[in-house]
Structure formats: structure tokens, C-alpha cells
Amino acid sequence: MARIVKAVSFALFSSFFIGGVALAQTVNANSCSASDVQNALNSVTAATTTVNIPSGTCTWSTQVAFTVPSGNTSLTIQGQTACTGSGDPYGSTSGVVSCTDSTAITDGYGSGMLQITGVPSSSLLRITGLTFAGGSSLSGVTPMISITGASQSATLRIDHTHMNLSTFSSGGNVGYEVYTVQGVMDHNLCDDNQGIGECIQVEAPAYGGASWGDGSWNAPDNFGTSDAFYIEDNQFSQGWYIGDCHEGGRQVIRFNSFNNNRWQTHPTGAAGRYRGCRKTEAYGNQYNGSTACNGTSGYGNCATYFAWLSSGAALIWGNNAPVVNSTTESGYNYVVWLESMRVSNTTYSETASPNGWGYCGTAQSGSLSNWDQNSNITTGYHCLDQPGMGMGDLLSGNFPKACDQTKGCSTYSGSWPNEALSPIYEWENTFTPVSDNPTATANLNQSQFVDNTDYYLWCNSSPQNHSGCSSFNGTAGVGSGPLASSPSTCTTGVAYFGTDQGSWNQSGNGFGSGVLYQCSATNTWTTYYSPYTYPHPLTQATGNLTPPTNVSAVGH
Q1: Per residue in 485-500, pLDDT tens?
Q2: What do you get for the CA distance between the two ends of the chain, in Å?
Q3: Angle ∠(376,425,385) on CA atoms, nearest 5
Q4: 357-388 as b/e: b if 16+ CB within 10 A
Q5: Which helix (H) or strand (E) holds 186?
Q6: Could you say which of 153, 283, 479, 509 would form a disulfide bridge with 318 (CB–CB 3.0 to 4.6 Å)?
Q7: pLDDT in tens, 357-409
Q8: Which of 172, 226, 219 is nearest to 199 (CA)?
């Protein structure tokens, strides 16, 4: 027997029933207003649900907050904005994404206008077909869209949306704040001509069931796996940074177009007890600098680097910054900037232990923090969670009781958590540095980093400028080429990228594949890293979804 089920006036509601249990559901909000969207979300009860938000222009002056029901396995929140093209610079649209803003929601709330929490285990949350824009109301640098409290096994997809941070009347803001581990952000357009907002923040404070990001720092790197949030095929226009990673976050940034902007990580010690970004992979991106970056307009208009690393392990490779003006300048000075930020109070002030992490080394305060390795008294080397650090002992508890669980927590002692080296590897990045301005592949102005220990550069060239790798002999740095051309001898820690290996790139975009091999022991090459399947499997659903018509519910 068939039956028609209608919700109250705010939505058309349909479900499919088997044995009286709702398995699939469609909810159509009456409008894009905050109240109508809130009502539509509140009616979600089925395992699989699509919430459709119609075309319209709305300003939200109240917050929409929603906790995903525990029995949900798939929730799609879908507007009518259509985004076409791909940020992949090697793809058919040459890195261009364009959007028609049919469902446009303006932030008139200013402190998290949409908050989604509690995505259950093994569930998928998808946000698609929406335009979000800054408004006149702003409360600090806070995210417009927060997705928090997700189970570690849950997945998230944000696709075909337009995040417009350019329309805030003053200041900047964050677009998406993602407290998750697995998922992808793909085929989005992010605008920020004010230059001080961030499109996305990636965080994983509850990784492994711990807090503060501790669980992520107690787990392996897991390079080349689904154990990360993927940012791929997006176009980022302007903005100082496109995003940030902290609280144990794990991110992969690949095949995006950056227009006069870059990405960063956040360190331990920047936000009280919270840990820094755990790991980053960045490859296949194109960095288009400003055309005004030249001697006439001044080098202050140049974007200093592709990547700012202040925390954790990283693989940075195969990125490109083309020439953008007639004076043969790329608009970038460096590929990567490495900085260990707890050595001074230049950016962040530290509280001495046991009530904080303290400063690394003696330069700032004259005293050492027990949280650092302190093999060198002056520098504190290695600093806790500095770039090039990886898995260590599990910590727990807030200050002043934070402690190494393997040694007991009855009294505070604070100690180096035995973090393993997980070096920064950089290779096959190409750019024409800004003319007549000091440039190099890596900015290494701190004694916190040791060449060919904490980081390895392509061909180990000096002064870190390189355009090829014909001289690689396996003694230092990173080499690349056909696997058969790799040296038969090697020094432990050195790496070689076999360009003719692997089949992870299924896009046909011409970028190729490749596998990284590490010299795991003298003269022994071992497979170290093969990137995760591209495109990300979650992106294989077809583009923007089409809203259902003539909806009815059938049961028996």
C-alpha cells in the first residue's frame, strides 16, 4: 500500500519505509532563510536524507545549528548554486571554477552562522550547491560554517560551492572549519579580495579518541591514504592564506589553482594546550602570483612562499609557479618557509611549564622547557612538534597535568614525548623566483633545522635553487627520474621519486603518477610513499545534484 507523507508548511517531506523504518528521506525547505533551513534540518529522521534549499538570496541573522541523528548514514545539504570547471591546473578548464550564485546565503550573524555536529560513525555528510558570503556582522576571525564532533570514521564532502569572503564590510573571516579526518573539499570557488580571511581550517582534535590533537600525534604519518582531509580541484582567488591546519589536523592539498595566495600550518603553542598540524601533502598545485609583483610596484606585493610549515611532517612536490609578468618574475620568493615558532615570542607568547609549553631553547626566556628534546641547550633541538617531527608518545590532560601516559600521570613532570623524525621532503617544484630579490627553494633562517636530517631538498642543490636533478648521486637530498636511473648506493634518509612508477593518478590530466622511495638503510631503497587515488573516490558522484520532482513516499 502506498502512502503520502507531508511535513508541516516549512517543507515537503518524503520517506521510503521498509517494515515501518524510514530508510530514505527528502526534505525541501520553503526558502533559504535561516528559520526554514533550521526547520528542514530538524525534520531529518531517516538513514539517508537529502535536504534541498531552493534558489534565493537570504541573510542569516540567527544561527542554524544541527546535530546529525545517530542513525544517519548519508546526509546531503544541497542548494541550487551551480559551479562548473575544476581548479586542477592540468585539467580541461585550466584551473578555472565559475559559479552561478542561485542559492546565496549572507552571514549576518558573525559567529558561526551554521554549525553541524555529531556526524555518526561510517556516515557521509555532503554540502553542495551553495553560496556563502560575508556580511556586515563580524565577531573576530570565526568560521561561517563549522562541522565539529564528527566520528573519526565519518566522511565529509564539500563540493561545488562558492565561498565569498570578499563581501565582509570589514575584516576577514574563516569559511569552513572542519573537525574531521576523512573527506574531501572539491570543485569549489573561494574569493577573498580583502586578503585576510581563510577559506578552510582543517583540525582533528579528537583523533583516536583523544583530545587536543594528541591522538593524531600518537599515530603514524599514513601518507598516501584516506587518513586526511583532501583539498583538491578548487580555485582560490586572492587571500593571504587559503586555509590553516592545526589541532592535529591532517591535510592533503592537490591539484588546486592559487591566485596570489598560499597555504599554512599552525604550530603547537599557538592556541594554548592544542597541538599543531600533524601532516601535510601538497602536490600538483599551480601558484599564480600577482602581475603587480615587480620592481616598479615593489616586492611587497609578492607572495613570499608557496607553503609555510610550522609543524609536523610534510611532502611538498610537483607544484608550479609560472611567470606572471614581462620581467620574468613568478611572484614567489620561496617554495617553502620552515619555522619553529616556540623559540621566541615574535608571534606567540608562551607560558612556562607546568602551566604551558614554554619556550624552546634558552634564547627567549633563558630557561628550557622539558617538553623539548634539548639535545642543544641554546636551540632546544628538537622542539616539540616542529617541522620534520612525527609520531610520539600519547599525551593527555590539560595543563598543568599534561603528561606522558607511558610514564604515569600522578605528578606533573613534563618530558620529551620521544617523537620520531618524519622529514620534510621537497622535490620537482618549479618556479622562476622574483628577480633581484633574495630567493631560494627553502627559507632556513633558524638553527632549529638540520639539512638532510629534518628536511631533504630536490638534488640537495645550493643555495637551494634548482631546476633539474641530473646530478643526484644518492648521498643527499631527493632525486627524481625513471626508477631504473636511481643510484645503486644511497645514504640513509635520502629519497628518490620514481616518475615511471604507480598508477594512482586516474584523471588523465597529463600530470603523471610516481612513487617515492626512501633509503631506509645504507644502499637499500624502500617504498615510502605512493599518493592516494586521484580523483578522490568521494568525488565520483556526478557534479551538482538535481533536486527531485514529483516526490512521493512509498511504503508497505
Answers
A1: 999 999 999 999 999 9
A2: 5
A3: 40
A4: bbbbbbebeeebbebbbbeeeebbbbbbbbbb
A5: strand 182-186
A6: 283
A7: 999 999 999 999 999 999 999 999 999 999 999 999 999 889 888 887 777 77
A8: 172
Distance CA 300, CA 285 (A): 23
- pTM (two decimals): 0.92
The SS3 call for residue 69 is coil
What contacts 448, CB < 8 A, 6 or more positions away? 340, 343, 360, 379, 380, 381, 382, 383, 386, 454
Strand partners, 127: 77, 158
CA pair distance 170, 253, nearest whole angstrom: 29
Contact 130, 98 (CB under 8 A): no
d(CA 262, CA 307): 6
Name which of 197, 196, 218, 214 is nearest 205 in CA terms: 214
Instruction: Enumerate residues 6+ apart whose C-beta is below 8 A from 418.
Output: 392, 393
Owner of C-alpha cell 631506509: 520
Radius of gyration of the chain (CA): 24
pLDDT at 326: 59
**What does residue 342 show for φ and ψ, rounded to 5 degrees?**
-85, 5
Contact status, residue 263 vs residue 287, Cβ threshold 8 Å: no
How would you write 259-306 as a 3-class SS string? ECCEEECCCCCCCCCCCECCEEEEECCEEECCCCCCCCCCHHHCEEEE
What is the four-CA torsion angle of 472, 477, 480, 483, rounded to 10 degrees? Answer: 80
CA distance 66 to 395: 31
Return the SS3 of 128.
strand
Helix (H, G, I), strand (E, B) or coil at 132: strand
Give the mean pLDDT of 234-251: 90
Q: Is the Cα dihedral 235, 530, 493, 467 positive or negative?
A: negative
Nearest to 368 by CA among 349, 381, 355: 381
Residue ranges of alpha helices (H) inside 445-511 are none
**Residue 41 host element (H or E):** helix 34-42
Cβ-in-10-Å burial (0-12, 13-18, 19+) of 344 comes to middle
